[in-house]
Specification:
The chain is mostly helical. The radius of gyration is 16 Å and the shape is globular.
Amino acid sequence: MSFRRWFDHPVIHLILRLLLGGLFITSGTLKLLAPRSEFIAIVHQYQILPESLGILFGTLLPWVEVITGIFLVVGLYFQWSLAVTGLMLASFMIALGVNLLRGRTIEDCGCFGNAQFLGSSLEEVLLRDVVLVGMLVWLAMTPVRWTLDERLR
């Protein structure tokens, strides 16, 4: 099988879509199950957003992650879901990069609520986010198949 055929294969697209969407559903759900104040405190430890924006970000992000993850999995508003996921990943990577440049160490990135999952240091989490961006780019570049958007057309 040529690389292009493998690259465009609908099963690969579906697997990546399920992995990325499932990861965001899991991340958001774990944050929603924990006390809201815990995640807001984690947002504040990055020392990037003013307090009021940190509260808003910490309150809304878990819901956006779950909703976007569901949309990615079922393929609803697929292009918009990819865009929102890309913006979330960009914001995470900026926060991680800024704190790496500051020389700060953050014990809990807050990515999966209280769970240390797929990386614990800022460098590991940044590397994980780079891989997720790669998955996102792959999804954006390949033909979209087996989605709810396709069925609703």
